[in-house]
Every structure is written in structure tokens, then in C-alpha cells.
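Record 1 of the preview.
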Amino acid sequence: MKGYTLPLSPRGTANLAPTPPWHYAGTVIGAEFFTDPDAVAATLPDGLTPDPQSAGRGVAMFIDWQYSSTGQEYLDPARSQYREFFVTLDAHFHGTPVAWCPYIYVDNDAAMARGWVQGFPKKLGAVHQTRAFSVGGPATPVLGLGGRYGATASAAGQRLAEARITLEQPVADPATLMNRPLVNLRHFPRLAAGQHDRPAVHELVMAVLDDATVSDAWVGTSELAFLPARGEELADLPVRRSGRGFRLDLAYSVTDLKTLVDHTDHTDH
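->
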């Protein structure tokens, strides 16, 4: 049986996610926000601590993605295109500033499989965002001063998040918008009776993004809200204040990750 993720199969083409490398390109609409520091602390796994300097800072990002692997998978847009929404929260790992991802939603099963392998806690959702077109006209915002963009995310028929941003100026150094390494928790539980509290995998990991490139980055103001919904805890991070809004194009590749702490109990039973 062949394949990287399930389902393994005779030819190995039925698996949801093939062996890396995985390549991504997308358009990001993002909003900085500030929530209660105690709410941030409540989401942090073992190994991370609150960032005492950030005052409950987080970032919400809505992304329209296109994916490819070793071939030109983008020629099959039904499989290679998807949309995603997630939040990151400022934290520390042994004194190093990092961004922790507690919640993320995606509308594509292959993207969910790749995310779980990397430690992203992906759930199914529906994500939409304003698109910009170079032809201009009343149906598209400008990618420039005064351009206004909206984005929404929902899950199980319930609205979870909504954002609007207004662009004010280009970003001279786009690296300042994404200057914290991203940390996730790879968690795969056991089903065997008596071992439900002993996950098969429980690792704190740091994302490794190869050849990360940002272009057409603009920054401005933002409006952001997280809405209460059954079965969700995103709204437990109430937006007390919105910060910068931004729009940019982003590309990177994934072939690796860095294990920070392996909490898995490897004792055989």
C-alpha cells in the first residue's frame, strides 16, 4: 500500500496529501486585534507562556489559497484552490516571541489533512473575502490608498468572524507583518480503552516556511468581530480593540517542521 496520508492505496494517488514538498500561494486579508490577556493564556499549551509585552495581541487572517506539489496541481483548481481563516496569538517559547494558532477553519479536505500533519487544528468552515481585479470599475476595490476589503468566516451554518480593512499605505518592509515564527500542537489521540488520555502524538512544533515571499503589501485600519457560536470558542477571545489591517500576497513551501517539545508518552503498555 502506498501514500503519505490516508487513504493508502495500491497506486498511492488516492491519499489526501502526497509526500512534501507542498507549495502555497495566496492573498491575505488580515486584522490585528487585542483581547484579554487571561483569555490568551487560557489557550496556551504546555511549553508556551503569555507574552508580557503584547497586551493580548493577536492576528486574524483570511486567505484565498492555491496549492501545488511536485507537478502543476494548480491546473486542477477544484482540488488546488481553497480558502482558510485562522487566528494567531502572541506568546513566548523560552523567552522567544512566537505566534500560537489555537483555531483555524478551511473548506478543503486535502488542506485539512496537510494541516493536521503540521499541527494546525483545522476544522471545516466557509471563508470568503473581497477580491481585487486590475481592470478597475465599481465591482472591485483598488489595491492602493482607500481600497476597502471585507472577509467573513463561518462553520456549521454559523457566522464566526467578520472583518473590514481600509488600505492607507504600502508596506516598505513586509517582513514586519509576519515576524513571529508560528507554533502548533501536533495531537493524535489513542482510541484503545484505558489510553484515551495518552495521545499517540503530542508535540509542540514550529512551522518551517521555505522561500517565504510577500508582495503587494498594504497596511491600514481594520474592524474585526468574533461572534458567539455553538460548539466554538473563538468568541472567548473578545476583540477589545482592532489594530492594523493589511492585505498582501504570500507564497512559501513546506518540507519540514521543527519539534520544540515532545510531550508524547512513549512508555509501552
